[in-house]
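Recap from last week: sequence in, structure out.
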Amino acid sequence: MNITCRVRDFVESECRKPSSKYGYEPFSCHFIQVVNRARELAKRSGADMEVVELAAWLHDIGSIVYGRENHHITGCEIAEQKLTEFGYDRNKINEVKHCILAHRGSRDIPRESLEAQIVADADAMSNFDNIAGPFMAAFLYEHLGQIDARDSIREKLENNYKKISPEAKKIIQTKYDAAMLLLK
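Predicted structure tokens:
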């Protein structure tokens, strides 16, 4: 089994555990979408597909295992441990870790590689692909009412859009426009 399949299986198994902070849903409703968007962007740009895929699978693993706060940091720790366990190349591990660290749109961590920008773009794009996810988080985990949730999500989507690459903006433009229309 190749490294990407092993990492995907690891992430899925963590999501299935009773201790998973958000249950199994993030696997099918977020991780898979992020990976698909990341692959699409990597193909278009010639980025290192393996690094992009591994980072896309692992970008939110810290959130699943420990919770959302600092999940970009805890995700790096988990990724290093798991990829080392799988015998993955040390330099590639560092590239994957940088993608995970820099993926958070709410943190201004410089994206120092094309792969890091792709993972961050794919993560942001997933919010437009499955707008129910941000609403679920706002209602269930942030305990917001309808008006506050709507305003919070609109602001999050606007910030996501501002921080993604021009290529990602082109791909997501129609969904962005529709979301802004509905959330006004």
